[in-house]
């Protein structure tokens, strides 16, 4: 895949990453790293491309930028062993994924979302409403109610059983202030959730814009990443 982004953009990221000794492959492994790198690349390409996609599709560029920023920040939090905080950002990407899968279904739905008022967006395009709409259209929901609820309970909303940065069910501590380097269970969960939803975001946003080759590439890379 050709890299046609402004060199200064990649140099900035590479320099900052190298300065903190953060390397994708050290965190994800080779196959998952390749999928993650390509997903971030595609999101950044969509967000920074000067191409005019027409009508209201320019909004997709902003959404891609949000997903890129959240994905990169979530990765950095994993590198600092802050798995709750990583999952919190990943949850936001998951919300976007479901919404984009719904908007991808038809131009009519997409334009309705674009033109909706704030109250209409809350009522018709909130997380629960989006899942219901997907089910009504017989479209598989990429982020199920159970998966979304788990992210909320683990990393976002406080409950009587909240334990900061304790994702391992066998960890009986009351929680950790700062990163929990020993929580390999939490690390794997944070890595896999981030990888899944960032790659889905890159795929569905590409599909909305008619960038079919991106979808094919990511689907193929996904087979190698999630089957290892």
Order of helices and strands: HHHHHHHHHHH
- Integer-rounded radius of gyration: 18 Å
The overall number of domains is 1
> Which ranges are low-confidence, i.e. pLDDT below 50, for 5 or more consecutive residues?
1-10
Structural class given helices, strands, pairing?
Answer: mainly alpha
Report the portion of residues in β strands: under 5%
Shape: globular
- Note the total helix count: 11
Main sheet summary: none
Helical residue percent band: 55-70%
Report the end-to-end length measured between terminal Cα atoms.
23 Å
How many E strands? 0
Rounded mean pLDDT is 84
How is this structure best described in words?
With 228 residues, the protein is mainly alpha-helical. 70% of the residues lie in helices and 0% in strands. It has helices spanning 7-19, 24-28, 30-48, 58-79, 83-103, 107-115, 118-125, 127-136, 145-156, 184-208, 212-226. The radius of gyration is 18 Å and the shape is globular. It starts with 6 loop residues before the first helix and ends with a helix.
Task: Summarize the structure in short.
With 228 residues, this protein is mainly alpha-helical.
């Amino acid at each position: 895949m050709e890299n046609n982004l402004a060199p200064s953009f990649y140099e900035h990221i590479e320099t900052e990453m190298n300065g903190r000794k953060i390397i994708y492959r050290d965190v994800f492994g080779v196959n998952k790293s390749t999928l993650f790198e390509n997903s971030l690349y595609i999101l950044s390409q969509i967000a920074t491309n000067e191409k005019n996609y027409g009508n209201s599709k320019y909004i997709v560029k902003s959404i891609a930028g949000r997903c890129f920023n959240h994905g990169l920040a979530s990765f950095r939090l994993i590198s600092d062993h802050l798995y709750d905080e990583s999952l919190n950002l990943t949850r936001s990407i998951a919300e976007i994924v479901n919404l984009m899968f719904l908007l991808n279904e038809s131009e009519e739905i997409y334009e309705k979302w674009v033109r909706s008022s704030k109250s209409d967006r809350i009522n018709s395009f909130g997380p629960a409403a989006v899942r219901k709409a997907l089910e009504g259209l017989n479209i598989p929901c990429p982020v199920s109610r159970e998966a979304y609820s788990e992210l909320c309970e683990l990393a976002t909303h406080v409950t009587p059983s909240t334990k900061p940065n304790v994702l391992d069910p066998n960890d009986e501590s009351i929680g950790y202030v700062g990163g929990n380097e020993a929580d390999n269970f939490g690390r794997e969960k944070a890595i896999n959730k981030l990888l899944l939803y960032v790659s889905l975001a890159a795929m569905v946003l590409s599909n909305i814009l008619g960038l079919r080759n991106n979808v094919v590439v990511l689907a193929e890379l996904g087979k190698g990443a999630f089957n290892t």
